[in-house]
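Take a record:
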Amino acid sequence: MRTRTPSPTLSVATGSSSFPQPAFQGFQQRFRFSLTPWREWLKEQRESGNYNASRIWREMVARGFTGSETIVRDAVAKWRKGWNPPVTTAVRLPSVSRVSRWLMPWRITRDEENYASRFISLMCEKEPELKIAQQLALEFYRILKTQNKSQLSSWFTRVHESGSAEFRRVAAGMEADAAAICEAISSRWSNGVVEGHVNRLKKMLKRQMYGRAGFELLRQRVMSPLA
């Protein structure tokens, strides 16, 4: 039988009391032994996402490693076989109008309830003024719903003490019309019906005067029936 093995090698093999181990096995043992003390440190690098073999080897040399860069490259290559790069997705922030709507809990729809609640909680935690503004808005809403105009003056006081410049400006304008606001809170009448009729008449006039609109024509249309 021809084995193509040199005679000296066969002589050593036949004269040995045990089966000779392949030459590469000793290399594997040396490979495993050289990285054994670094097992935990290499595990930390892998978990942190550091797959740069050259950078890992340089850091190991700085820490006292005496092995070659090839050994480190072979170890890192095994990591890459089961490694998938993290997928990053762009997060689209809600618009200002949507956030202002979310500040009123009853205006949050069911499909956005979880996200909106967490988002507003985080915003109020980061911006305390936003939390104060939400509380003041909810208090004013409760005054309107309960028609309790006696709480309006105390609400104005809390607004001025809140430190919010925007709310103070709004409250200053509302205080000038406090009497009208109190009547609007307590009265069961509303000008909503009148506003609706005015809007319908205005739209009707616009459609009838389309293409020839002007102040003179508008005055004839409005003033002539009243003359």
